[in-house]
Amino acid sequence: MIIAVFPGQGSQSPGFLAPWLELDGARERLERYSELAEVDLVAAGTEWDADRIRDTAVAQPLIVAASLLSYDALTRDGSRPTGVAGHSVGEIAALTAAGVIDADDAIRLVGLRGRAMADAATGEQTGMSAVLGGDQDAVVARLTELDLTPANYNGGGQIVAAGALDALAALAAEPVRATRVVPLQVAGAFHTRYMAPAVEALDVAAAAVPARDAALTLWSNRDGAVVADGRDALDRLVAQVASPVRWDLCMGSFAERGVTGIIELAPAGTLVGLAKRALRGIPSVAVKTPDDLVAASALISGGAA
């Protein structure tokens, strides 16, 4: 089983979309996506600096648009993976690849999601920090003590803590034994109770989006479960805005299902890196530019990555 995975916020970098716009029809598609998302995605992906594309309202549609462009390029010849999963906002791209929602609906939804989460983040001074290494139970206990939320269980010895900035500062000042705390350049405490207003806004919009049953094996961030019912998958995606991302459980489920290869779509690198630590020995390809499509296609067809 070869699966495609789609990255989340923070995977973007200045200018990363430039080589993709050289593909036939890519610029026109991205211009249409820009109108739907209410963001100039062409400029964001080719000209804007790191600070501008870090804005949640920009980063989220930019990442999903890039994932859809690269996935379409990969599958243009008719070859497809047998399963898909997305990390955080990457779940919107995964649902699209699985045929649960249309691409245009996906871009409208992610544009709204980015704006709603950016608005929710202005309510209080919050942030996120990666906690690397250490014992997971000890890390979670320390976060609970500080009223922080383990927002992302990324596997491979990485948990992302989210909450009030003073609590994150206390965590960094007195880290759990054998851990390293790295502040993340994000605008708020995503996947926590602070995002409740965004869930409400997204729920209304998602209710109007037609949902079909998944045509590919589709994993959910909520608990690593395979979800076939399209409406259930969309409901999970909405609720997950204010609940932890369980990518560790997704990777565990990949192993249980006998996944034999992983392809990460643009802007790629993060999820393949996690897989190399947690799913050792499984071939993977990070599709960062169109040049990487040959290796990804070879992995799907049974060739070497």
Automatic annotation (TrEMBL):
Q: Which UniProt keywords apply?
A: Acyltransferase, Transferase
Top-rank taxon of the source lineage equals Bacteria
Quote the EC number: 2.3.1.39
Q: Report the leader peptide range.
A: none
Active-site residues, record numbering mapped to chain:
S88, H191
Q: Which GO terms describe its molecular function?
A: [acyl-carrier-protein] S-malonyltransferase activity
Q: Which reaction does it catalyse?
A: holo-[ACP] + malonyl-CoA = malonyl-[ACP] + CoA
The answer to whether the entry has keyword Acyltransferase is: yes
One GO CC term of this entry? cytosol
Q: Which InterPro entries match?
A: Ac_transferase_dom_sf (IPR001227), Acyl_transferase_dom (IPR014043), Acyl_Trfase/lysoPLipase (IPR016035), Mal-CoA-ACP_Trans/PKS_FabD (IPR050858), Malonyl_CoA-ACP_transAc (IPR024925), Malonyl_transacylase_ACP-bd (IPR016036)
| SUPFAM superfamilies xrefs | FabD/lysophospholipase-like, Probable ACP-binding domain of malonyl-CoA ACP transacylase
> What is the similarity comment for this entry?
Belongs to the fabD family.
Q: What is this protein called?
A: Malonyl CoA-acyl carrier protein transacylase
Q: Which organism is it from?
A: Microbacterium oleivorans
